[in-house]
Every structure is written in structure tokens, then in C-alpha cells.
Design goal:
Blueprint lengths: L1 H43 L1 H4 L17 H5 L1 H10 L5 E3 L2 E3 L10 H12 L11 H8 L7 H7 L12 E8 L4 E5 L7 E5 L4 E5 L4 E6 L12 E8 L5 E9 L6 E12 L5 E13 L9 E6 L5 E5 L25 E5 L9 E5 L4 E6 L5 E5 L9 E5 L9 E2 L35 E5 L17 E7 L10 E6 L16 E9 L5 E9 L5 E8 L2 E6 L16 E7 L2
Parallel strand pairs: 15-19, 20-24
Antiparallel strand pairs: 1-2, 3-27, 4-5, 5-6, 6-7, 8-9, 9-10, 10-11, 12-13, 13-14, 14-15, 16-17, 17-18, 21-22, 22-23, 23-24, 25-26, 26-27
Helix pairs in contact: 1-5, 4-6, 5-6
């Protein structure tokens, strides 16, 4: 009797140990999927839904505590693999946004959705690649390969008269800025997540020289690098934003890094912090952070610091800081690059998010900014740094946008305090058209949602058609509107500016190059040569095809 009993006990022990092992294996697999999914979420989803899934009221649905997500697992998968253009109700609120398909294979879709459903008080569970594949098979693109092919590079647009256009290099990662000495040789490419590449136009050699882990003293893996310039010594200066979870509020620890050495091939390496500051992380996805950085003719360093709100709202999440804008956001900075302990000087306020700025031939400084989600125009502003003892000029944000009066409230969640007494806001550049205007009327300054950037001055040594004017790249609509299905951008515009007798600037604007894959920078590479950086390959919003890394185009003056 003892032998059968012993065998039974052994068998029971084996079953139990196997079950424990399988449970441990399942837990390990879930943890691994969560880790991979968190990285994918930060790269693909947080820009709209927020780093903690809070979304934006009426614009981007929340993923935290989402009743829709709990009840619509397959529909959530379909939104990722096919995009979402229909009305949905989440936690009692109606959302009518447009979400493109995300270019992720089945396993990565499973990982990112597994991360979401196991975060922020959601219902939990595991999403499998097989489930994703089954849902994808019912969508417009039946396989990941079909979706990827649809998102491939588009044919080159027609070059403007007197210019030749060619593809220079396809990029391995999403890039945001270009930098060089402007003499036509090698140049550098900044990725959005800290990587830097060196490209040799003659040989076609593309080499990564800086990795995210090379930045000394980072506190977070959630890193965004948005500004980039090369000084006279060949050293690179890079603006850095990192999301740091802290108490009582999450912080944007931001600042400027600069390279401190050169490798055997003469490329700048070893970025070290030069300026460090922080403020409460932005409300929802609106942590625009510090972005463009350039040297002025005065030898000083100029930096754009974007807003932490969409339009001045105080927000509803205490861990994100419910204080609207702070001293250093929605502003332009100036610093002394020779200082060992640099101090931020605010030279302009009320600039929502100047993703690019530059000077004209006479030394006038202009910025281009993207506006709020409520269909306000995108602005171009003339910046006049204050004289010693004077206050910086205020350009309106968040009280006045475009030509609308300060009393205008753009939408329900915009709850700004009353404007300061006797405001004297500086009006934006008035675009007289024919390109880039809203409703066929003069606009201050560009169509809504087009995200102007890449501001580049072309002086007297360029052809007559473009000389003494600015080029502006427009990344292109992320939201449709104001009219249903309306979208603009995906282009490069030329602006010829003139100052009226009352002091206000106007612009005559024409289209130079379109359509483009969300152009994010324009760079003078040498005499008669421009580089246009495409962030991705999508040349329109309506296709709903997701994003893959872009390329660099070369635009040269014909002999």
C-alpha cells in the first residue's frame, strides 16, 4: 500500500512543482512583455495619450481606467493595426479624433497593448501575437508586411524651377535636426531619442557616433532631444528633455548638453551637461520642452522653451502639476555660451512652442510655432530682445492666439486666468498668401495644425526666386480641421517679409516643395545647396498609414 501512496504523492508533487514553474514562467513572460511594451508606448503612443495614459479631454481618449478598453479588446487591437476614425465613448466622454495605424508587427502590438491593459488600474491580462494577427487579417492591410509596404517612401515631388532634387540618404531612426559647418562636407543628424549620426555625402557613409547612454547624468530612459547646433570649433550643442517621476509632481528635467571631445575620425563625442533646470512635466501630452538652439550674431546662445499646456489650462491631474505655465515655459531664452554657470535670460514670453527660429539678413529674429488643438492658426512672431532693465515683450499665449481677442476661449478645457491688466500683445506676422492661409483670407500666420519648423534664411547669394526670404517647413496636420477632413502642410513654403508703417510684419507666401514626408528641418549645407529632413514617409493625414523613419533630400541650384 505504501508504494502506490508514495507514487501518488510523488505525482502530486510533480504536478504542483510543474504548475509553480509554469506560473513563474508566465509571470516572467508578462514582465518581459510589459518592459518591451513600456518602451514601445513611450515611442509611439505617449505623444498623444500622455506618459501615464491620461489623454486630453475631448481630444485624445484616456487609456487609464478605460472602460472602452476593458470592453473592446479586439477593437483596441484594430485601432493600432488599422487606425481609428470613428466616434467612441470612453469613461462617459465622446471622442472623434483620427488615429493612424501604427507600424508595429504583431508581437510588438501585443507587447504595447499588454503594457497598457496592465497599467493605470486597467483590467489586466495578456494580449498575444496570434490575437493581433487574427484581428489584422480582418483589416484593410491583412498583414504587417502589407501595412509596411503602404507606408514606404513616396516618389520625389517636383523640384522648384532652377533647382534639382535628389534623395540623399534613408535614415535608420526618426530624426529631428541637422547640423554642420555649412561648407558642404560631412554633417550630423540628431535623432529624437538622443542618437547622433555622421553622414559623408561623397562616400554615402552613415555612422552613429553618439548613443543615448552616452549622455552623462541622465535620470530617466524617457529622453527626448529636440535641438541641435554645431559651433565654430565643431562641438555639438544638444537640448535634452527627460521625464523624471518625482514627488509631489513629475518633472521635466531639461537643459543643454555639449560634446567634450573628438574621436579618432574627428567627430564630436562625449556629451556632458552644460545647463540643467526643471519644471513640472506638462499636462497630458503637452510637454513641448526645450527645442531649437542657435547662436546669434552677438555670439550668445538662443533657445526655445515650449509650453507645458495646450492653451493655458490648469489640468486635472495633481501628479502633473496644476499650475498652467511656469516662469521658463512658453518663452525664448538667451544664454552666454562662455559661462561655466549659465543663467537663463527670458527675452520673449507668450510663445506657445517655437520649434524653430532664425534671423533675417538684417538681424531680425523670428520664430515659428505650432498652435493649440482648437484650430487656432500657427504663428510666426518677431522677437525683439529687451534692453537692460526692460521687461520682455509678450506675444499672447495663452491669452491671445492669432488675431482673436484675449477674451476668446478656444475650448472647454482651456481655463486660463484673466489676462494681465492693459495687455499689449505683439501680433504675429500677417500672411497675405497665396499659400498657407485659412479660408482664403490673410492669416496670422499659417493654417491650423501644420507645425511650422525648419526656418531658414536665404540671402542675396541665392536665385532671385527665393533670395532675401525665409523657407519654412511644415510637418503637416496631426488633426483634421477646422473643416471636416481638412489638412495642410507636408511642404516647404517661401516667405518674403515686409514691415508695414504701423510696425507689423506681413508675408507673401508661396509653396516651394510638396508633398513631403512630414519635413522637420531645412539646413543650408553649402553654397547653393539645401538639405530637407523628412521625419517620416507619410505625405498626407487621410491615408491613416503609420510612420516609419524618413530620409534626407538634397535641393541644389542648377548651374
Amino acid at each position: 500500500m505504501r508504494l502506490p501512496l508514495l507514487r501518488s504523492l510523488c505525482f502530486a508533487g510533480l504536478v504542483m512543482s510543474t504548475a509553480v514553474a509554469r506560473a513563474a514562467e508566465s509571470t516572467d513572460e508578462l514582465a518581459a512583455a510589459m518592459s518591451r511594451g513600456q518602451s514601445l508606448f513611450a515611442a509611439n503612443c505617449a505623444i498623444c495619450h500622455g506618459a501615464t495614459g491620461d489623454g486630453v479631454t475631448t481630444i485624445y481618449p484616456p487609456l487609464a481606467k478605460s472602460d472602452w478598453l476593458a470592453a473592446n479588446r479586439s477593437a483596441a487591437i484594430r485601432a493600432i493595426v488599422a487606425g481609428l476614425g470613428e466616434e467612441i465613448t470612453v469613461n462617459g466622454r465622446v471622442f472623434r479624433g483620427q488615429m493612424p495605424a501604427i507600424i508595429l508587427d504583431d508581437a510588438r502590438v501585443a507587447d504595447v497593448l499588454t503594457y497598457v491593459v496592465n497599467s493605470w488600474d486597467n483590467t489586466g491580462g495578456r494580449v498575444t501575437a496570434d490575437h493581433v494577427a487574427a484581428v489584422r487579417a480582418t483589416a484593410g492591410f491583412k498583414t504587417f508586411e502589407a501595412l509596411k509596404a503602404a507606408a514606404d517612401f513616396r516618389p520625389l515631388p517636383t523640384a522648384p524651377e532652377g533647382f534639382a532634387l535628389r534623395e540623399l540618404v534613408r535614415l535608420p531612426d526618426f530624426a529631428v535636426r541637422l547640423a554642420s559647418d555649412g561648407k558642404g562636407g560631412k554633417f550630423y543628424i540628431l535623432g529624437r531619442d538622443g542618437g547622433v549620426w555622421r553622414f559623408e555625402p561623397v562616400s554615402g557613409n552613415l555612422k552613429q557616433i553618439i548613443w543615448p547612454q552616452d549622455y552623462v547624468g541622465l535620470k530617466s530612459d524617457d529622453l527626448k532631444t529636440l535641438g541641435f547646433v554645431c559651433d565654430d570649433t565643431g562641438r555639438l550643442w544638444i537640448t535634452v528633455n527627460q521625464r523624471v517621476v518625482a514627488k509631489p509632481v513629475v518633472l521635466n528635467e531639461c537643459g543643454i548638453y555639449r560634446t567634450t571631445g573628438f574621436d579618432a575620425e574627428g567627430d564630436p563625442i562625449a556629451p556632458q551637461p552644460w545647463l540643467q533646470t526643471s519644471y513640472p512635466w506638462g499636462i497630458g501630452p503637452y510637454n513641448h520642452g526645450v527645442s531649437d538652439i542657435r547662436f546669434g550674431r552677438d555670439g550668445l546662445l538662443y533657445v526655445s522653451s515650449g509650453s507645458r499646456t495646450d492653451a493655458g489650462e490648469t489640468g486635472v491631474f495633481s501628479h502633473l502639476g496644476k499650475m498652467g505655465e511656469v516662469e521658463t515655459t512658453g518663452a525664448m531664452w538667451r544664454l552666454d555660451p562662455k559661462s561655466a554657470a549659465p543663467k537663463i535670460e527670458i527675452i520673449a514670453r507668450g510663445i506657445r512652442n517655437a520649434f524653430s527660429f532664425n534671423w533675417d539678413g538684417a538681424g531680425n529674429l523670428f520664430t515659428v510655432s505650432n498652435g493649440p488643438d482648437a484650430h487656432a492658426p500657427e504663428e510666426m512672431d518677431h522677437i525683439v530682445p529687451p534692453k537692460p532693465g526692460e521687461a520682455p515683450r509678450h506675444h499672447g499665449f495663452p491669452y491671445q492666439m492669432g488675431d482673436a481677442p484675449a477674451a476668446h476661449r478656444w475650448y472647454e478645457h482651456t481655463m486660463v486666468p484673466p489676462p494681465p491688466p492693459n495687455p499689449d500683445y505683439v501680433l504675429p506676422v500677417l500672411n497675405l498668401g497665396p499659400a498657407g492661409i485659412m479660408d482664403g483670407k490673410p492669416t496670422s500666420t499659417f493654417n491650423a495644425h501644420t507645425s511650422p519648423t525648419g526656418l531658414t534664411w536665404l540671402g542675396a547669394d541665392w536665385p532671385a526666386s527665393v533670395r532675401n526670404g525665409f523657407l519654412v517647413a511644415r510637418i503637416g496636420s496631426f488633426l483634421a480641421g477646422p473643416a471636416e477632413g481638412e489638412e495642410h502642410g507636408f511642404d516647404v513654403l517661401h516667405l518674403r517679409l515686409e514691415r508695414r508703417g504701423d510696425g507689423r510684419w506681413t508675408a507673401r507666401t508661396t509653396s516651394v516643395l510638396a508633398p513631403l514626408g512630414r519635413p522637420v528641418d531645412v539646413h543650408i549645407a553649402g553654397p547653393g545647396k539645401l538639405y530637407v529632413l523628412e521625419y517620416t514617409r507619410q505625405t498626407e493625414l487621410r491615408s491613416r498609414v503609420g510612420w516609419l523613419p524618413g530620409r534626407i533630400l538634397e535641393l541644389t541650384v542648377k548651374p
